[in-house]
Structures are given as C-alpha cells and as structure tokens.
Amino acid sequence: MLTMTDKKLGYDDLQPLMALQTGDEKHDAASTSTLDVLWVLYDEVLDIAAERINDPARDRFFLSKGHGPRPYYAVLAAKGFIPVDWLATFGGFDSPLGYHPDRNLVPGVEVSSGSLGHGLPLAVGAALGLRAQGIGARIVVLVGDAELDEGSNAEATEFAAAAGLSALTVVAVDNSSASWPWRGGLETRFEVAGWHAVRVDGRDHAALAGALARRTESDAPNLVVVEVEAAS
Amino acid sequence: MSDLAMRERFAATACKLLDQDRSVAVVLADISASMFAEAAARHPDRVVNVGIREQLLVNVGAGMAMTGMRPVVHTFATFLVERGFEQVKLGFAHQGVGGVLVSAGASYDMSRGGRTHQAPGDVALLDTLPDWTIHVPGHPDEVDTLLRGAVAGDGMVYLRTSTQQNTAPMPVDGSGTMMVVRRGSGGTVVAVGPMLDPVLSATEGIDVTVLYATTVRPFDAQTLISTLGSAEVILVEPYLAGTSTRCVAEALAHVSHRVLGLGVPRVELRRYGRPEEHAAALGLDAAGVCRRVTSFLGLNGTLA
Lengths: 232, 304
Prior knowledge:
The structure holds two protein chains of two kinds. Chain A has one domain (14-227): 3-Layer(aba) Sandwich (Rossmann fold). Chain A is globular. Chain A has a five-stranded parallel sheet with strand order 1-2-3-5-4, sandwiched between helices. Chain A contains eight helices and five strands. Helices cover 32% and strands 12% of the residues of chain A. By secondary structure, chain A is an alpha/beta fold. Chain A has helices at 14-19, 28-33, 35-45, 70-78, 119-132, 151-162, 186-193, 205-212, and strands at 60-63, 139-144, 168-174, 196-201, 222-227. Chain B is α/β, with parallel strands linked by helices. Helices cover 36% and strands 21% of the residues of chain B. Chain B has twelve helices and twelve strands. In chain B, helix 7 (140-152) links the parallel strand 5 and strand 6 (156-160). In chain B, helix 1 (5-20) runs parallel beside helix 7 (140-152) and helix 3 (54-66) packs parallel to helix 5. Classes of the chains: A alpha/beta, B alpha/beta.
C-alpha cells in the first residue's frame, strides 16, 4: 500500500515510511526527535505543497540539522514531494537520498545541510532576499540544541533580531545533546538578542501548531524550542 | 590617483548597478560601508551591512541568492575567502547558487597591517573549488568592466581588487581571454593583473611573448598554446607563487615544457613598511622579475 503514490498518507504512515529506509544510518535518536515537529510543519503550518516547490511565494523550510533525515524524507514522501519508492534506496550510490539532504537532488528540499551552523545564517540571507523582493513568505529553520554550539549561529541570531526579520522562525529541537548546554536554556540568548521565544512539548501536536503559527505582534523573529526526550 | 582607486571604483559601479537592477544586493561586513551609505539610504533592503560577522556575511549572500537575487559580497580578502571558507564552499556551489565576491587588500596592500590583513593564498584556496570565475584586474577601469560582467551573469565570481595597479588600463572585455601585449619568439611570460607593469619593465629587450591575464579561472589555455614560441612559460602572479602552474602544466601536457611560477612565497616576511618594499623583498618588482626571468631562460643576467 505504501507504494501507491496516489494514496493520501498521514502521520500513522510515517513509521512505516521510515522503516523503508534501511542502511547503516547512525542517527536514530536524532531521527525520531524531529518526527512530530516535521509532520506538524508540513501538515499544518507551512504554506507549501509538492506542486509549488518553485513558487517564489512559498514558505521555506530549512533542515539545518541535516543528520538523521529519515523522518524528513518520510514526511516529504507522505506529502508527495518524492516518490515513496525512493525511500528504500536511502544512502545508496544511485539514490538522491543521502545521510544529509541535498537540495540539488531532492525535490522540495530547500537547503543542502550536514555541516552544522550553516542553515540559520543562510535562512537569514533568504529572509532578507524575500523582504527585498516584497515576498511575504515565512522561513522556518530547524536546528538541534547542540548545533547552536556553532558560533556562526551567534552571528545570525544577533543580526536577525536587529534586522527585524519577523518572517524567520527557528525551531530548536532540544534533546539535551549539547556537551556544554547554555545556562538558562536555549531561550535565554535568543531573548537577550531580541527574539520572541517559547518552549513546547515536542510530542504535542496542538501545542506545536500553536507555537509555530505566524506571529504578527512584533517584528521580532521567533524561536520555538521543541523539547523531546534526551538523546541516548 | 587615490590609493583606494580599485575599491572606490568597485563601490561606485556597484552603486550604479543597485540603481539599475532590482535583483542586485550588496552585502557588507562594516568594511567599505561608508562608500555605500548613500546607496543604503536609497535601497535599504538591498544594501545589507551585517557588522563584523564574516561567516554571516558570506551565508547571507548565498541565502539571498537562494531567493533569486544577485548578491555582491565584499570585505577584505582574508576575511572574505579565508575566515569563512566553508561558508564559501557550501553556501554557493554546494547549494547550487551563484554570487559575486569582491575583495580588497590583496596580498600585501596593507603591508603595514601585517600578516592578519594579507591574503596571498585567496586564489589558491578558491581554486580548490569547482566553477569559480576569478578576476584579478590591474586597473580601476578594468574593475568596472569585470564587475558589470560578473553581476550580469548568474555564476560564481571572485573579483580581487588591489591598491597595486598598472599605470594604464588595458582594453579588458571580460571575455576571459588573455591579451597579447608583446610578441616574441622565445618563451612566454604571463602577467596577471597588477604585475603587468613590472613584467613589461623586466622583459624590455628580452625576446619573449608577454600575455596579460585579468581572468585566471577559467585559465585561458587556448591563447597560451596558440601564441607559444619555445615551450618555456613564466607565470607572474600577485598572489601565492605557483597558483596557476598546474593550469600551464595541463595546457602543455602534450609537449615537453618548462614552467616557472613567480608570486608571493609562503614565507612570512614579518616586515611592515610600504607595499613597494614588500614587492622588492619578495622579488616581485621589475628588478626581481627580470632576475628570475633571465635566470630561468638561461640568459646572462646583465639586464638585472
């Protein structure tokens, strides 16, 4: 049944879709940490569809934390961006689906990631580019809590708030994987820089959808810390 | 002429392009920001100064390109190419988007500033990546032509400005073809950008062909081959010595040949002073080039 591309796939299909992706993928904890928020983003939040991957007005989703991409590929397949039968090729020489996604190989993937600390700075540039062109689309970038150790994120965080990039939302999946966590939690440094910040239960779909809804109260960019069980 | 001539010309041309083309954006990291103050007032969303944040500088340019804009990204060469090299590598070619990087400072423009402000390795470093076009102009007029061509395209372009420059501009058209400045029957001397004046002086009275290159990547092998006399080639580059020797070796792989790569050596000079003093110390003034050319060609050294 999962080979039928015309079937409307839902959340309950994601685990089987992930299971199709065999191989020696080593990021299981990282993988499942993002499953629910990815689903909520693509099912309820982002203004994007498989038929509109080149629409200039589409919302953009940047998976900056590129490791552990199986849930991402599963969601893209469930939403019709990629054929379900690609999933079994995961990591193969002829497969478009690598252990880190490549936007030049996978329809609907907006950023080629893998090296940590590039997605947010690129998203800042993309937000500036959309604003300069008068396009009101949102940019949502998913990072991991340990990824925020990379100093490049500090450059981007400070500037994004100063520039009033309200179209930008950072989803920080916090599975307590940072070796040296920030005191006071991830929110503190974003809030100091002028971001709006909120922390939600990463398995609560209604809470995720509420936190990820577009904010219009101010021109501050938005941080949503998505708390999930600690990485083992 | 001002010692900021190439950089000022870059800024003036970039400001005109901002007025003419709504897809053009200039991204800065404080360096040269005053040159863009008026343009920033006219185009606040397309002149972006991120402050002293060079990783962000490069990725903001790439991110703007991902939305269809044509970014012109500028700071000193060492901060533009070397500090955030992974941003250059992954932000542009790996994402599959283009952009124009424009540097100032070159190898030893800021001779008094010391090693931290000198980037002789910038071209060699970019040369580890695929598909970058690299322009090394020798005169402010050439900056204007090369920048206009770069911004009009959609590829990845590095434009390296310098305060070292030739007395007169050459009729550079941005096509990437090397110009035949002098025809001889002996070896070939390739002068890159600001090295043309010292090369012409150094080779006065020597029977060599002198080619002038302002575009070093892609390297114009065709002109080198079609004008070749004896298969002896001397590259004179204003950055790391030997950066383009592999291009000559590939161009002449079918013939026995000799190649000498002149440029800035790897050694740290640890001297301040004027750029001319650095050129002399590094053997890149006319006397130094003459000495190396005559020795390589087996001529007696009387001209040195």
